[in-house]
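Hi W.,

Here's what went into the run:
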Amino acid sequence: MRGLPCRRSALIVFVLLVTAANAAEQRPTQVTKLRTPKVALYNCPDGSNKLREVTQQEFLGKQEFRGPWVVDPKKEVDGSLLPVTIDGKEYCVRLYSVETDKAVTATSECGALVAANTPKSAATRGVGEDCKPNKK
Amino acid sequence: MLIRLGALVLIGALLFVFHGIRYYLTPWSQAIINGIVKYTYPHTGQKETTVVLFREENLQQLKEPYPVSYKRHAMVVDALASFEPRAIFMDFVFMDKRDGIDKLQQAICDAQTARIPVYVAVIRPMEDPNKTTAGEPKPEKAAANEKGSEKPQPWLFPCAKQVSAQMAPIYAASGVLTYAHRIAYEKRVPANPDAAGDKSAGDKGVRHKRVSDKGVGAKDTDKDTVVEKEFLTTPAFAMASALGKLEAGERQDMEIIWGNGVPKVNTKWMAECARSGSWFAHLVSIFADNPLKTSKLRCPYTRTVSVAHLLLSSNDPELADLVHGKAVFYGAAFDLTGDRVASPVFDELPGVYLHAMAYDNLVTLGKNYKRAEREFLTPSLAGRQISIPLTGVVDALLLLVTVTIVLLVEEPPLPVQKFRERFTQISPSRKRLVLGLITALVVVSVYFDQSLLAALGLLLLMVAITLLDLVPPAERAPESLQAFVVRRLLALVVPILAVAAFVTVDRGLGLEAALLLIAVPGYFLYRVVVGRDMLFAATAVLLVLASVVLVSPPVNLGPRNVIAYVAFFELARKLLKHADDVAVQYRELRDRHPEDSEWGWARPIMPALDNVFAVCRRTVAVTESKRDSKEEAHARTAVPA
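Here's what came out:
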């Protein structure tokens, strides 16, 4: 009998935790920190053009480009980029250059074979058209 | 005695120099050494080293064609620098002028600004395209710069440091063991020493050494230039020196110790970290094939993260743990590119792991890393200094010791025999006690880095082996019928049990452990208990201890092929016995046919044959006291040659 109030309070804490976790899941992912002194903002979805660089001061300040930046999970972009919305405009940032409030992984590697006797072949790897230097 | 010594040393040298005993036994020797290393090599370096691997699959994941663009490499350097590693080595040789080199240069310079040194592999020292060999700006480039018509050609090495990607030649049967500390290149420079500035060399981390005033191989027309030797440091040595792990005077070619413990992070995403296949197939392949090939691991020793993981994830604490404050080796594992190395412990690995493992050795062992070769200088008769390779001297000494023991113990010369008579009454248990104490002295000396004392112990052990009569008995007391049956049954059952134990240990702990725990002790015990061959045991212990002393500081040589020496010891004994048998046979024939004319066409060479077979015969006279000894009776010819 003595254990009943304890069980009841534990149940309440559990329900609260579950509710909080659900709320956190529903909240959009945000960029909370810049990992490098300057972070480049690229155009989406391919990141071919660097549009601007944002400094730590700008991110932490109260002017333009202040953080946190909201991540748009529905937008399809290049794998190494993260689509963010800053002051209503859409940009892309390099995944490694920022820290988000939730872990983001665009890939998973399992069962990789690193050390193995690869079959010996008497051939050279051809270089495709894509490998020609891009002429601007 | 001297003739026999010379003949055996010659046979040994031939076997060791040319393919034969050494080639076939090296893998087994290395398997045992790897087994020992598995339990003794500390993981200090493993915690400080990380490989960032650009895998074939990453090309698809990143939508990147092959070869990887310089822009992508720049992105990787940028990403790595954001984690603040201690240093970055790029195991890529950027030989071609391609788009994006300016971005890569910028990424490297940004890393350097953040105090992260970046080392880039080169196949030979690279020159700044904007400067002359003397380090001055090229006139045409300088003029174009002044006009502003042409930008200076970007190149990577204003900020990056050049390191040589060239590998040392592979001598070992089982894979790469030697890691050069620097690679020499020849370079033609202006004859005026002032012009061949060290200024530019210093910037690149290249060391120069003038070969001769005329130049090696210089043509007559090249009177204004000389050939200079340039040295480029290899990545592991350059990084270890820069990070304070190694002093300049301590750089010598390394015998790599390949670590054997798979890090947890690798097991999370790599396949075949545990061995697959049936025990029987494994056992067959061990004996049918190279033992090392079957025991090789497929999970690398160095902690590894893929480029896709680096570039396509955010907020991964494991990534930060792997890169922050670590020496990062960035390399590739692409199909059909050839950059792979074989090692005694692992299956073929991407080449970057060689540099990472060498760095790991330098961090773990510090100045006591194992040298592939040591040289000492000695003055010649002409007064010049000659360099003698210590490895060659050590191998020759081990061979000489092996042969000397065989000759002194099995067929001791008269003075040794007389001296040994004083020890014949010593009981076998006391002999073992003496040998055990000396062995303990050597082991303790090695443990406390007292190499001089250890060497003295080895000498004492050799003397003890020579003086304490340890030759196996040839005659045994007659045994009962039951004892005969038991012995034969044991001969049948014991090998089956041994194979079962070997398979069990191999299955659970690996081949090295099976060799260490079952095969080697089993054979050793068999020779001591069944064969009562204390001489074999003592010699094997002596050779193993000598190898341990040589591996330990301050000698720090790479592990010697002990199994080859033990095998040669057995071979030498067999050879001597065979020579003696043939000599006895010859003596009998000679006694029956004493006239040279009876030997037909061989008549002219008969005196020479007499001498040759006299040398082949054993020279032992059994003493009375020896006959009284209850312990051992030896199969020696009573008639002196």
